[in-house]
Design goal:
This protein has about 100 residues and is α/β, with parallel strands linked by helices. Helix content is about 25%, strand content about 30%. The chain is globular and about 40 Å long.
Length: about 100
């Protein structure tokens, strides 16, 4: 089973890359896909850049090229809920589309 891991920024994927055994590094346009072994699992790690267009484009490329069974999008974000703290993991049950800088 291959796991896809995506993040918008270098800081969001650097720990994954640092802790992985990189098997192969492939470039596509301005994006770098790291084929790796991460904690005993096959993984593909990529930085997509910010925004829904980049993330959807890179996600589709990952699906087409690597066929991951799961994709995790990891990243940072702000919070309006005072009960949340740095390092908390948030899993959404609903999502709303919102353009950045808009």
């Amino acid at each position: 089973m291959t796991i896809g891991i995506m993040g918008a920024l270098d800081a969001e994927i650097e720990e994954y890359v640092k802790n992985a055994v990189i098997v192969e590094k492939k470039e596509w346009s301005d994006f770098v896909f790291y084929e790796a072994r991460l904690f005993g699992k096959e993984a593909v790690i990529v930085k997509s850049g910010a925004g829904k267009v980049f993330s959807s484009m890179v996600c589709q490329k990952m699906i087409d090229e690597y066929g991951p069974e799961r994709i995790i999008f990891t990243g940072v974000g702000g919070a309006l809920n005072r009960e949340l703290d740095i390092g908390d993991v948030v899993v959404s049950k609903d999502c709303i589309q919102h353009d950045m800088d808009g």
